[in-house]
Design brief:
mainly alpha; Arc Repressor Mutant, subunit A; 2 domains; 2 strands; 61% helix; 6% strand; elongated
Length: 126
């Protein structure tokens, strides 16, 4: 996880978003434990209550479950739940702006597809 914080959002929300990104990227998989609150707090020099608040947000969203005495773990289906929500959010919030830029620049579907193919060739293989 990145150690830099921005002032646009509370730190607990940024922590939550980083965990979400790790789930979407496959770094954290279903059943994997989250790092302990103490370890994250020490590593990122934030208050343990801040980490706990971000983890609680993940529990509230049913992405993570608490196991008494064991810690917190990624729920089954968390990635699919996130993908569904993130896709809807992208289409509602980001796509209109991107679409407007595409139209403004006069880009064709063929140009976009070719650009996407070129970008895919450059991506490192997992």
């Amino acid at each position: 996880m990145d150690r830099e914080w921005n002032d646009n959002q509370p730190i607990y929300r940024q922590l939550r978003n980083r965990v979400v990104a790790m789930i979407l990227d496959g770094v954290l998989k279903e059943g994997d434990p989250l790092p302990s609150v103490r370890n994250v707090a020490a590593e990122y020099r934030v208050n343990p209550l801040t980490v706990l608040k971000s983890y609680q947000a993940l529990v509230d969203e049913q992405l993570v479950e608490k196991r008494r005495g064991l810690g917190m773990f990624i729920n089954t289906g968390a990635r699919n739940l996130l993908l569904q929500g993130e896709r809807q959010k992208f289409l509602a919030e980001e796509w209109p702006r991107i679409s407007a830029t595409i139209q403004r620049l006069g880009l064709t579907p063929e140009e976009l597809l070719e650009s996407a193919k070129e970008a895919a060739k450059k991506e490192p293989k997992s």
